[in-house]
Design goal:
By secondary structure, the chain is an alpha+beta fold. The chain is built from 4 helices and 24 strands. Strands 1-2-3-4-5 form a 5-stranded antiparallel β-sheet, with helices on one face. Strands 11-12-13-14-15 form a 5-stranded antiparallel β-sheet, with no helix packed on it. A 3-stranded antiparallel β-sheet has the order 8-9-10, with no helix packed on it. The longest helix is centred in the last third of the chain and has 38 residues, at 424-461.
Length: 462
Amino acid sequence: MKTLQILSLFSACLFSLSVFSQTPGPVTVPPNSYAFYFTGAPQLGLFFNSTDNRYEFRDAAGLAQFWLNPNNGTGYFSSKLGIGTTTPAVRLEVRGASRFGAVANYGEFTPTGDLKFIGTSDYLVGNNRYAFRAESNENYGLFFNSSNLEYEFRNGSANRVFGVKANTGDLFASGAIQLGNTSTSTAGTIRWNGTDFQGNTGGVWRSLTSAGATGWSVSATEVVTTNLDHNVGIGTISPTAKLDVVTPSTSLMSAVNGVVGYSGTSDIPAIRGYSITAPGWGIGSRFTGGYMGIRSEALASTYTGTAYGIYATAEGSAGTRIGVYGSAGGIGADNWGGYFLGKSYMHELRIGSTQGAAGYLLSVDGKIMCEELRVQNNTLWPDFVFEEDYELPSLQDVKKHVNTYGHLPGMPSAEQVCEEGFSVGDVQVKLLQKVEELTLYVLQQEEELAAMRALLEESATR
């Protein structure tokens, strides 16, 4: 009703202006006064609001329902405005085509309600906003996730169910993807022909689910190929091994990660390698690293047994077996073939040569330098020399042995030392025995000298 009143008033205004226009000269209206009004409703009419500088169409209560500001072209309409219709259902209803924007670049609503863009104009969506969504549930729709640079189709809970990365084209789907049949020959195309999943190699369709001529077999639990010529590539389209895994240059992920989910008391390797091409040939695993070739840890936690960071064995019935072999080389750096922190146990150690002395746990071909050497020898320590029943060899017997054999009694000869070496512990014991015997000889001579001095003193007093 209010719309009809305003339209009637607007028509009356136009009629009045046409009548006034027949009279020469302008029609003037005092400030804050009506240009015209209805006699039955004196506040219903066209009012000049000089305070706000605008023309106002007022209702019977004197409230402005429609006004225009002639200075800046702004206006206000309190009810519904129809363009192409006299019965608008909303604030602004346009029947027919409408345009908005610049002269050459604009958006347009067609007479059928379609929206199209002309020229260089685009439909822009703000960051983290919906491009469109359902009226019944506004969580449904196409959402632009500017944080992840991804186009997302969201469900009724506003959760992503399908997404496409804007920069990389990576695809995510939380549900099933349906593939239709196609006759394209583009390499990399996948289709469902009604009975089988197939992939196109660039002219030939290959089965992806059955062994057939391709040698591939796919089930719910495994993917198997019986063709020994097949290679599998992850991150590469040209695999050079049976399984070739390549990570992107920007990725911090490991190329291969093996995790055993079993929880029990059985030793199950996370990764197993086996290569024996012939007796003495084959490498079970080979790794190359810029800092560490291999790094292994034994996280034994509360296990009370022995834990091994590296456990290596070498077995065979012939030849030489080396359980652990280490070498280091380089220019201008210290090179250590092996570096151990903590205790080290070795059944037999050979330094400077692979040849060891029979019956000895440590063999050194070269010189040894140390600040202190401690020998624990179970040989009887020669304190027995000072016991009363010890038979000290006479100096005449010692002289005779030296003249005959060229060395002290009980000591090894030079020839024996050159040929067999000598035991540091045994020689130390024997040297100490000789020192103690020399001490006894000195003590005997001291007693003899004392007796001689006493005789001389006695002879002098007579």
